[in-house]
Amino acid sequence: MARSKIALLYVGGSIGMKVNQKTGRIEPLESLSEVHRFLPELQKEVSLKFFSVANVGSSEIHADHWIEIAEVIQSNYDAFDGFVVVHGTNTMSYTASALSFALQGLSKPVVLTGALLPINDLVGDGRMNMVFAIRAAQLDIAEVCVCLGPHVFRGSRVKKVEASFMETFESPNCAPLIDFSREIHMADHRIVRRKRTLECKPTFNTNVCMLTVYPSMPQSFLQAVLDAKPSGIVLRTYGPGMLSQKLFPWLQKVTEQEIPIVITSQALRGKVDLHKYRKQLTLEQLGIISGKDMTFECAIVKLMWALTQTKAPRRIRDLMERSLVGELED
Questions:
Q1: Distance CA 17, CA 13 (A)
Q2: Domain 4-200 belongs in CATH node 1.10.940.10
Q3: Angle CA(108)–CA(70)–CA(36) in degrees, nearest 5?
Q4: Is-contact 47 4, C-beta < 8 A?
Q5: Domain with CATH 3.40.50.1170 in the chain
Q6: Which of 81, 131, 147, 229 is 20 to 30 A off residue 183, Cα-Cα?
Q7: For the whole model, what pTM was predicted?
Q8: Which residues sit opposite 263 in a β-bridge?
Q9: Which part of the chain is CATH 3.40.50.40?
Q10: CA distance to 24, 92, 159, per residue, from 20 (Å)
Q11: Class of residue 41 by CB neighbours under 10 A (exposed 0-12, middle 13-18, buried 19+)
């Protein structure tokens, strides 16, 4: 049987490092092909080709990297059965969301993976994560996802929650797509492989601001945001979208300036519901966009993307409140 052809895109992170046995220091791999040396058993079932996109720490990731990753995948799309993106874990949820919107209509998987420790650390998580990610890239799934430990999560639904080998990421409002814990379990809500036309739209307006509301938040902070003239705002609110009425005049100014503002919940498993309380109906009347049960990471990236798709406020609202890649519950 022919081996699966998997493209391995290296962006950075601890998994692409190694421990120098002489000095004990952590150093970059000399070549991505060294990954083969640490995973010899995979060569029997997978044909890997390596692409070096970048070599940056997770905290150095920016929108230009999202664009480059998407373009490399688009350029090599027909030649591979799946793609694995090696990436640092700290900003992986942002990149996974960005690729979800940039690469719509996938007929094969794009799997992000990383590690907390270098790949040649015998007690580390690098080898395990790489094996699971490459295996996931061969399965019947066709969406952007994140694989660390034995679980594969939807890319637009994932959050980093702790520095733990087995529970690095969670998907608060969406069950795992694949579970490798014992036998391979594949969830029914995953998007499966079938013939589709890839739409590559890797464009992002990064002039977006995120604010977290808190008691006694100074009005001067809010005014400073308006003075900066953002293209859009994501506001992390209490519970199902609750806000102090003292913020309503500021919200009125935001909407008068036709700046799209999306509200999400500070609760890990929260969902914004603008119809639950009378005060929230006022928010809807002001034109505030509901982030529903999107993670704040996904909400800010989706807004960056949506702002490049249209200038019409109603169309932006429609894009943000509608599920495009399974990022929210309609």
A1: 7
A2: no
A3: 70
A4: yes
A5: 4-200
A6: 81
A7: 0.92
A8: 235, 290
A9: 208-321
A10: 5, 26, 31
A11: exposed
> Read out DSSP for 113-176?
E--SS-TT-TTSSHHHHHHHHHHHTTSS--SEEEEETTEEEEGGG-EE--S-SS-SEE-TTS--
Work out whether strand 151-154 and strand 178-179 pair parallel, antiparallel, or are unpaired: antiparallel
Which CATH code is given to the segment(s) 208-321?
Answer: 3.40.50.40
